[in-house]
Amino acid sequence: MASPSDLDFADIVSAFWTDGCCVLRSVVEDPTIGIVRNAVADMAGSDLADLGALAGDTAPSKFRAGVDQWRSDARFLSLATHGVLPTAAAAVLRSERLWLYEDSVLVKDAGSAVATRWHTDDGYFHVDGTQLATMWVPLDPAPLAAGALRFLPGSHADGHRYRPTLFVIDEAIPGTIGDQPPDLAIDDPSAIGYDLDVGDLTIHHARTLHAASGNSTTTHRRAWSIRYCGDDAVIRQKPGAPMKPGFEDIEPGTPIGIAAARLGLIEATLG
Ligand SMILES: O=C(O)CCC(=O)C(=O)O
User: Fold this and answer.
1) CATH assignment of the domain containing 120
2) Closest approach atom of ligand 1 to CA 147
3) Is the pTM of this model over 0.90?
4) C-alpha 149 to ligand 1 mean position (Å)
């Protein structure tokens, strides 16, 4: 990985804070990708929910996803909290410490027409702060046509707090609060995105609007998404968003560094 002192890396960090997203090329090495692919292959069918069903999609090519694999498989935990991935995330967030909030495996089969609709992660996360980011690691070559993420630049700083939707349709999760995400085409020309190769990754701010098309290629699109909290994160329960164990019992505003032990959240080892 480029060192945080490299000029290139400074540009990447600057892009993250200006646009709300950035891309890192050729930073994840083969052993890591192989371990994650094996961990995904070992997941039980029941670990992945058929998201497309929510959009009424019954095609054999599915969009399936699971959440918090790190809690049941030490391979996800180890790679999310040691080595290049958390070190890059902390550097981009300009954070001295970093906590793993959540991870998610998202598999979009070749030919799945199910798009990931425009949304921000902020509304789903029971935390608040500026140093919150999601790292999206493709496990297969992921051009935009396969469903690599697209981002609306600057949306992380547009002053809106968007309510969480059902992810594959624009309907808000009942009981949530906030603004409805804008009604944009997935390939809206104002969006930016990157054709990704294995080894590349993107990082986006929790308040950045992002989306992904269906997968019109002939290769499945497996991805591992890792959600991190940095120094200034505090607990803030978001009404209506799916609750996580223990979060209800934490006083809102409690710094993540204090709440983490009670919640069983793991601090990353950096460097
Ligand atoms: O993989 C996808 O299609 C969506 C992932 C996403 O929105 C995220 O991880 O924040």
Assistant:
1) 2.60.120.620
2) 3
3) yes
4) 7
